């Protein structure tokens, strides 16, 4: 016997009631195969829409037919059980043209194969188009019916937790099991004493269960539940609010109180600028930003934003504790007074020795600048007289202009007044000797400014913070290993990007 596979599909329970059930289609297909001398080696049963582009079961059946050349026949009940879209029609035509399969429609007793005439292929296109039109009409009428149901105050979709759909009245009733727990949920949230994270375990302990899985109701579902106006008598359908005829589980006042408490406690408004140490610290585990949030309106805590996913962490850290962790960091880069004086004297001596060298270098650079400028003027004279090739002129002009710019930059670096450098250094050293005393007296916002001054970022690992210092604070941080003023002076002078220009 010739081998075949059978695919049967329904998209709604109503189709089963109308004689299109999976069992009815399978019986019809097997009977058709027997009458036509076909052996069905595999059956696919599917409950999926024929409009979907990712029809898993349909694609499995098609792939099986492609991989098994001994299976030469594919049986469907009728055409609209096969497809109602052009994407899958192309797959079927490919099975016929490329793989030599024969397509059977058991209920209508039609066949489509390589031997089919152009008229048969044309009729296939028409039947798919008709199936698409019928599907569109059904979808439109369904939407109209659901909108009409919403206009009558009846929820046209599955009831949320705490309610249940009534198959007789087609309305929504309070779930006698979960309804009281949802009332308790709103009452608890309204007190402002519970976060949704806390309520996930608390409501499970009290007896709240997922209506389909009989498992713990996740915090994401609890959060959506609290935001849903359905519980005080209003539902949203098609971006429009409707007054429902279903019995409310809570009053509008309780719903408002619970949502106000939720915004303040569970989901605070977080931006970079709301919290002193926000956008300053990163998580040592995942490198995400450490965010601040206010709980109960008065306590500020910091935690990982978990932008790359949840992970084990040390929990929330209060703002005063975070500030305390920064204290030793600032103290560690605060310059002792005697070292500051030593650095100032050393810098003054070095500037004096460099003065003569700087003057000589300045004269040489000025001479080079004047020489280049004279060459550029002669080049322009040649160009005006027409005594130079245009291409050569452009190349030479570019070269001389680049030399002028370089000479000017070096000249500006040389003309810096040693007294101005010394004054700038004195002010900076004074600030660096007062860093820790200033930090201790400062409020949180001022502390954050000091921290941004000395470090690029701060890495939080558990209850410890590791700084990534800016220059020259990275030098100062090494003092415990090398506590030597001469070393600090040499490092400050040689460090690229030093605050005194090297």
Describe the 3D structure.
By secondary structure, the protein is of the alpha/beta class. The protein has four domains: 140 residues, Rossmann fold, CATH 3.40.50.1390; 103 residues, Hect, E3 ligase catalytic domain fold (Alpha-Beta Complex), CATH 3.90.1750; 50 residues, no CATH class; 121 residues, no CATH class. The chain has 18 helices and 15 strands. A five-stranded mixed beta sheet has the order 2-1-3-4-5, with helices on both faces. The chain is flat, with a radius of gyration of 40 Å. The protein starts with a strand and ends in an 8-residue tail after the last helix.
**CATH architecture label of the largest domain:** 3-Layer(aba) Sandwich
The share of residues in helices is: 40-55%
Highest CATH level, the class of the largest domain? Alpha Beta
Contiguous runs where pLDDT drops below 50 for at least 5 residues? 13-18, 266-273, 493-502
Give the N-to-C terminal Cα separation: 93 Å
Largest sheet: 5 strands, mixed
Structure annotation, total helices: 18
Q: Short description, anyone?
A:
This protein has 502 residues and is α/β, with parallel strands linked by helices. The protein has helices spanning 13-20, 22-35, 56-67, 79-82, 86-97, 118-151, 179-190, 196-206, 219-227, 252-265, 319-332, 337-385, 390-414, 418-433, 435-441, 444-454, 473-476, 485-494; strands spanning 2-10, 38-47, 71-76, 102-105, 110-112, 163-165, 172-174, 234-237, 240-243, 281-283, 290-295, 299-304, 317-318, 455-461, 464-469.
